[in-house]
Amino acid sequence: MSHATGSDPERALLVSxxxxxxxxxLTRHAAQAREVATSGAGFSAPAHENDSRLEExxxxxxxxxxxxxxxxxxxxxxxxxxxxxxxxxxxEIHGVxxxxxxxxxIFDHDxxxxxxxxxxxxxxxxVVDRTQLxxxxxxxxxxxxxxxxxxxxxxxxxxxxxxxxxxKAMSQLGGGIxxxxxxxxxxxxxxxxxxxxxxxxxxxxxxxxRTRAQQRQRRESVPVPAVALVGYTNAGKSTxxxxxxxxxxxxxxRMFATLDPKLSAIQLSSRRKVLLSDTxxxxxxxxxxxxxxxxxxxxxxxxxxxxxxxxxxSSPMREEHKTEVEKxxxxxxxxxxxxxxxxxxxxxxxxxEREVLGNGVSTGPIPVSAKDQIGLDTLLTRIDMELxxxxxxxxxxxxxxxxxxxxxxxxxxxxxxxxAYEGNLVSMTVAGPASLLGRYRRFRRAAG
Length: 448
What we know:
Blueprint: E1 11-19, E2 24-29, E3 35-38, H1 47-63, E4 67-76, H2 87-99, E5 104-107, H3 113-122, E6 126-128, H4 130-141, H5 145-159, H6 167-170, H7 191-221, E7 226-231, H8 237-245, E8 262-267, E9 273-278, H9 288-293, H10 299-303, E10 306-312, H11 318-331, E11 339-344, H12 351-357, E12 366-367, H13 376-386, E13 392-400, H14 404-413, E14 415-422, E15 425-433, H15 434-437
Parallel strand pairs: 1-4, 1-5, 5-6, 7-9, 7-10, 10-11, 11-12
Antiparallel strand pairs: 2-3, 2-4, 8-9, 13-15, 14-15
Helix pairs in contact: 4-5, 5-7
């Protein structure tokens, strides 16, 4: 059997499994037309849902750097405790893996330690489940020290109870999906060393979190409200972030391209400054270990005053994706925060579909195209309306012309409604953040 070497991508056989009363088996070789074999009364789940889930699974595998050579899908009444898919299906997977010269079999489902061990004993190549796949993508994309530590912690916590029988997976040290990341050279030999490393990573992560908390406290000492972009992976959050801030965060169709939160200060039409953050995308069945391990990364979401939920308006699964995002927000206990819905990628919709969405000027979802920079002003206005911290006040001021610094600060940070010159005084009506106007309360005068 051929194996990936050097920089060649691993050859992956995908196994998609669904549980329910009916069953369908689907096998596809990458170089051949798809062949469908059906048993029982047929497959009852909506076709678009199956297609979207399968497409999402393929995107995950591609994001992990593998080349898909074959696929097989199964629906069965319930999971087989020994192998998840049953002995007959295992034999079929063995045949497909051999004939397609697969290096790795990837399941779109989590496997227990027993299932993983039995499948690796029965199949001619390594086996990886959904959690390992997602962890691997996280390991590829983490850039900051905090992100790397979080990935390593989640990998170690996942691997510790699954050490027994991982000879096949661990024999290719440092190579391939599911084995990438710090610490893997010890996983097959020394449980105690892994436990020590777990404690060490936790301590290092706490130190990084303390540093981040101190940075956040310094930011919070100046009342600049925070706004966080959240959403399903690949909904276009980073493209929207770039369109608003023009700072050039990585835009990528690859899943989980953004793992470390990006922060940028922007000024709204009210002249109020806010910190905008771009966060990791959510996904269906996001492993719980990732939600907990990435607590510090998602802390930006917890500290934000307003959440902007970015959705892909062109996706047939957009309602299901919305539900998945809200599940994670519920775990983070932030569902009660002010939340704006943004329907992105309207450039992919027809004129009729766009009209149905409305304009989002005062209420409802806000249609935008981050790519074509459509609807961004409406979005920023709605963000302004939602903010409570550092509210916008209107005041009448009389300032001596000699107070050049005060006049310049108000010009830069507030909206000047009207201005008149009376001798050496400048009389003006200004609307601006309370934190700014408070610095010049000595110049306040009564209206009228």
